[in-house]
Amino acid sequence: MGPLGLEIVTVVQPYAARKPYLCPGCSHTIEIGTGHLVVIPEDAPDLRRHWHRGCWFKEQRSRPAG
Description:
The structure is a single chain. The chain has 66 residues and is an alpha+beta fold. The chain has one domain. The chain is 15% helix and 29% strand. It has a three-stranded antiparallel β-sheet with strand order 1-4-5. Strands 2-3 form a two-stranded antiparallel sheet. A hairpin with a 6-residue loop joins β2 (21-22) and β3. The radius of gyration is 12 Å and the shape is globular. It starts with 6 loop residues before the first strand and ends with a helix.
């Protein structure tokens, strides 16, 4: 996460999901053909991660507001 907590979130449609990725939220594989999110910290684009949608929304709910 960036210094201000800013992240760019991009939706990956199922037809564009051509590689498997490991979701950091649940440590399970995001299979080829599964729609998901790519989350890119604004100040560290090399740290982008691929998340299941549900895992990302759960992560967001667990973060303190502010």
